[in-house]
């Protein structure tokens, strides 16, 4: 039968400080122990990125409208408006998202376009 070691007093956690048992004059300390209040961390909004689609001479307008509706949840009217901006101005913003979401959407659109045989290009650009 194994021998049991004598019980040791519980050690204090590394985040707690021992309470002072006596005051400066040596009298027992009866003051309650107060926790240190920490300020809430300041949170800032994440950097946002635009998913920008660029014009080319080969991708059909219908394909671009379909991508804008399926991947960016635009209505038919807003998808057509963005597609026309891409066509006339050379590029258009499909949506604005945090970086990881914008990267994923741009990669997904580029992959879908390649699979369909189109050179449509989407990239992300920082906003603000």
Automatic annotation (TrEMBL):
Task: Please state which protein family the record places this protein in.
Answer: Belongs to the ClpS family.
Q: Which HAMAP family match?
A: ClpS (MF_00302)
Q: Does the keyword Protease apply?
A: yes
Sorted alphabetically, which InterPro entries does this protein's record hold? ClpS, ClpS_core, Ribosomal_bL12_C/ClpS-like
**Molecular-function GO terms, alphabetical:** peptidase activity
Source organism of this protein record:
Enhydrobacter aerosaccus
Q: Which keywords describe this protein according to UniProt?
A: Hydrolase, Protease
What does it do?
Involved in the modulation of the specificity of the ClpAP-mediated ATP-dependent protein degradation.
For bias type Acidic residues, the affected ranges are 24-33
* Limits of the Adaptor protein ClpS core domain: 44-121
Q: Which GO terms describe its biological process?
A: proteolysis
Q: Does the keyword Transmembrane helix apply?
A: no
A single Pfam family it belongs to is: ClpS
Name of the protein in its database record: ATP-dependent Clp protease adapter protein ClpS
Could you give the subunit structure recorded for this chain?
Answer: Binds to the N-terminal domain of the chaperone ClpA.
Q: Region Disordered: start and end of each range?
A: 1-33
């Amino acid at each position: 039968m194994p021998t049991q070691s004598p019980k040791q007093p519980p050690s204090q956690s590394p985040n707690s400080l021992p309470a002072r048992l006596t005051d400066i004059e040596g009298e027992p300390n009866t003051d309650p122990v107060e926790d240190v209040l920490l300020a809430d961390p300041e949170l800032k909004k994440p950097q946002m990125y635009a998913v920008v689609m660029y014009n080319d001479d080969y991708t059909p307008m219908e394909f671009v409208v379909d991508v804008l509706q399926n991947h960016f949840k635009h209505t038919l009217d807003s998808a057509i408006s963005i597609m026309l901006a891409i066509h006339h101005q050379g590029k258009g913003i499909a949506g604005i998202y945090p970086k990881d979401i914008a990267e994923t959407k741009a990669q997904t659109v580029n992959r879908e376009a390649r699979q369909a045989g189109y050179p449509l290009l989407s990239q992300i650009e920082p906003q603000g």
